[in-house]
Design a protein that fits this description.
Layout lengths: L2 E2 L2 H4 L3 H7 L4 E6 L2 E14 L26 E6 L3 E7 L7 E10 L4 E4 L1 H7 L17 E5 L9 E4 L9 H4 L4 E4 L5
Antiparallel strand pairs: 1-8, 2-3, 2-8, 3-6, 3-10, 4-5, 5-6, 6-7, 9-10
Length: 182
């Protein structure tokens, strides 16, 4: 079973979407070939109050995509060298997104455990920013019937957000599959 996730999947609570993306497949069309990678790690960023979120400072040129419709691709450049892939969640004008941090190519057992590794591997850059996840954009997410049991999901603080202060840096909004048991 392969079902492309519709916009409704993303028009929900950001933390829930981040957890439920685990086990789904990020699919990228490159050179007339589809590359499918199972999502193994995500982080939730939710609204103006979330001090680790780009939206905590209000709407800017960089983060304006976070205010778009759910299922919109948000790609930003960081550290002067890496692109990061996010998917907008919740309703339009509420700035929230899920960062895709890790994936696995099951056939080859290739782990891409880092958001920059996966964007490089899939050739994701700013050209995809503000496009809708779909076959038309060349990037989409599919449900292939993989169920991840709750006991296999590790919840931890997000990575690299110490600037947000202890309260926000320590929130357990990073979700990781224990891939040894799948």
């Amino acid at each position: 079973m392969r079902k492309v996730l519709a916009r409704e999947f993303f028009n929900r609570n950001t933390k829930l979407v981040a957890q439920e993306l685990l086990g789904k497949f990020l699919v990228r069309k490159l050179n007339d070939k589809n590359i499918a990678l199972m999502i193994t790690e995500t982080e939730a960023y939710d609204g103006f109050k979330d001090k680790a979120s780009h939206s905590s400072i209000g709407k800017t040129k960089r983060n304006e995509v976070m205010f778009e419709d759910p299922g919109t691709i948000y790609v930003y450049f960081t550290y002067g060298m890496h692109f990061m892939l996010n998917v907008v969640t919740r309703e339009k004008n509420y700035p929230a997104a899920v960062l895709i941090r890790g994936v696995i190519l099951q056939d080859h057992k290739i782990f891409l455990n880092g958001p920059a590794k996966l964007t490089k591997f899939l050739k994701i850059d700013k050209k995809l920013n503000n496009k809708i996840l779909s076959k038309n954009s060349g990037l989409w997410i599919e449900d292939r019937g993989v169920e991840i049991k709750e006991k296999l999901i590790k919840k931890t603080p997000r990575i690299g957000v110490s600037y947000a202060g202890l309260l926000w840096a320590n929130k357990k909004l990073r979700f990781v599959i224990d891939t040894k048991n799948i």
